[in-house]
Amino acid sequence: MDSIDIVGIGNALVDQEFEVTDQFLSQHNIEKGMMTLIEDAEQEKLIAELAKRGELKKQSGGGSAANSLVGFSQFGGKAFYCCKVADDQAGQFYCEDLENVGITTNTGNQKHEGKTGRCLVMITPDAERTMRTYLGITADLSIAELDEEAIARAEYLYIEGYLVTSPIAREAITRAKEVARANGTKIAMTCSDPAMVKYFRDGIDEILAGGVDVMFCNQEEARILTGTDDVQAALQQLQRHAKLVAITLGKDGALLGDGTRQVAVPGIPVKAVDTNGAGDMFAGAMMFGLVRNYPLSACGLLASHAAASVVSSFGPRLSLDQQQQLLIKLQHEPEFS
Asked: What pLDDT, on a 0 to 100 scale, did the predictor assign at position 1?
């Protein structure tokens, strides 16, 4: 059997990106910077409005955990993804998109009726991303979509925070954690979005129950979770739940802590055009560093550079060549020695 570094569990969504103005968001009562779940009819109506304003900038396979695993895989890691797609054109596109970067999935025998999920990503001139998501069949992700044998032999289980909106997905998370703990598989999680922490706090607490090995969140998510604006104090509080905590700070880099030390990761100056996927890439790159046993400072440096590259262009992912060149360049830095 081939080895597996990481098994992810998360939503399967096809991302469609459009450029919009702040005025457009206001006119349509859309809360900026947040992911909001909507129904299919509402999404179709919004797509029609967006199509009047301009071209589709990019379409790609998406989902927070999937984006992280693509980054992880293109650096050279071995990844497996547990998800749910419909037997439709979007589902086929999604699976082929992951397979093309070397990610194995559980979808080989899936022939589900319904509609594969879709995420509309609206990018304002300040590069902020705002999302309207119709989950489609991924809302029904359940224990049936878990590959327990893959989880048992992986080094890490990686859990997407967006799943906490679904009661049956939360049951799947609980089961996946049980399998991981029974087999010595470490557990990593990402909060995914401030809305998850704000409106589904009990679900985030469920993921963290019993502690995890690695936790990713941004500064706003850390503030909501801990009630403090002091990022160092927030880090210390979150370490009660996770052995290693990474708080991303946007253009200011990140703060990492593993219980024995804190590492301030510098931000990389770039002209940001699209922040969609930055946190996902940060997590994927850092997880790659962890499975390769890089020093913590090197993990952070790779993650920060990778995230900065993502925000420099449209879409949540980089090309294989971009990631390989970045890895070659950074391995000469003192953090990697």
From this structure: 60
Q: What is residue 311's DSSP assignment?
A: H
What's the CATH code, domain 4-12+69-116+142-336?
Answer: 3.40.1190.20
Domain range annotation of the chain:
4-12+69-116+142-336
In this structure, are residues 336 and 294 in contact, taking their beta carbons and an 8 Å threshold?
Answer: yes
What backbone torsions phi and psi does residue 259 show, to the nearest 5 degrees? 95, -25
How far is the first Cα of the chain from the last one, in angstroms, to the nearest whole number?
32
* pLDDT for 68: 97
**C-beta separation of 307 from 281 below 8 A:** yes
Q: Quick check: helix, strand or coil at residue 248?
A: strand
Which of the 8 DSSP states describes residue 265?
Answer: E
Residue 162, pLDDT score: 95
Q: Which of 231, 279, 281, 276 is nearest to 256 (CA)?
A: 231
Model confidence band, residue 141 (pLDDT cutoffs 50, 70, 90):
very high
